[in-house]
Structure prediction request, 371 residues.
Amino acid sequence: MTQRTESTDAGPSGGFLAEIKDAVTIRAALLVVGVLALQLAFITSYIGAFHHPKPSEIPIAVAAPVQQLTERTVKQLDALPGTPLDARAVENRAVAVEQIQNRDVDGALIVNPAGTTDELLVASGAGASLSQALEAVVGLAEKAQGRTVKVTDVAPADRGDARGLSSFYLVIGWCVGGYLCAAILAISAGARPANSARAIIRLGALLLYSIAAGLLGTLIAGPVLDALPGNIMALWGLGTLVVFAVGAITLAFQGLAGVVGIGLAILLVVVLGNPSAGGAYPYPLLPPFWSAIGPALPPGAGTYAARSITYFKGNGAGGPMLVLAGWAVLGSAVTLACAVSRKGRPGAAVGSGLPDDDPSVPGSTGDGTKA
Prediction:
């Protein structure tokens, strides 16, 4: 007969609960809770921004041969229920077209007192949903006056740019590349750089990546897929700035909060930035909160600038470019400041399971001094 032998493997000494406690640390549990909160914020932000688009104070020019008629039409449009339009008088059709191309207004109504059909000028390159909203609102207003409108698109989206969304998705792709590049630097060499020299190296690597990502993204959206007809050099410069700005923000958050900084970057860029970017629904169609924060965040600034470069000869791109430059400078400055303040104490690499300043991290003794 064979005899049963006792196992010599060491088993859990405290039972199943002790095994759970050993397998899932408090830090890991908190990070999981943070991920859940980020996921719920993502769902809330996108549904909250997109579930009920409603036009609000869309800037529109009005021109008529007689000034009194122009002023009366402006008052009628401004008095529409819910204030969907923000009408303003202009001298003539040529001025109205110029204001649309300068991105001062999103459309124009050219009144023809000699007939019953007026002309509505739109710019689908600024977003198809916006031009469609203008057609619907102005069309109903004209119908109430016993009139009709014919629509002229003075800045049409390219045939390969369905609904004018290619610029938005290009910018989103650049944003994703920016924070992923910064996250990979944290995974490979510590969430927080050990010193200012390391921080400069990371920013330099991010810049090189940004130049390559900006160029390749522009070539794919332009010559390869024939989706965006904009100036290649201008879009390349924009792409470089978008990627670097988002990457620098991520590095800054990592310098401030370690691995949690990646989540903070996603919160800013993805959860808050993407739905407020004016991509699927431009700013006049978004709820007030989203239309207010969108222009100040990288996805919104990048999308507006990309459309300006592609369809409006760069008009209106200056402000958004300054916003992106501001984020890039701020992110770089915070990254360097955090590195200087740490005085040689590197953070643990993301995914290592070690907290920052752990004694086993190379270059750190765990007491704040450099090994």
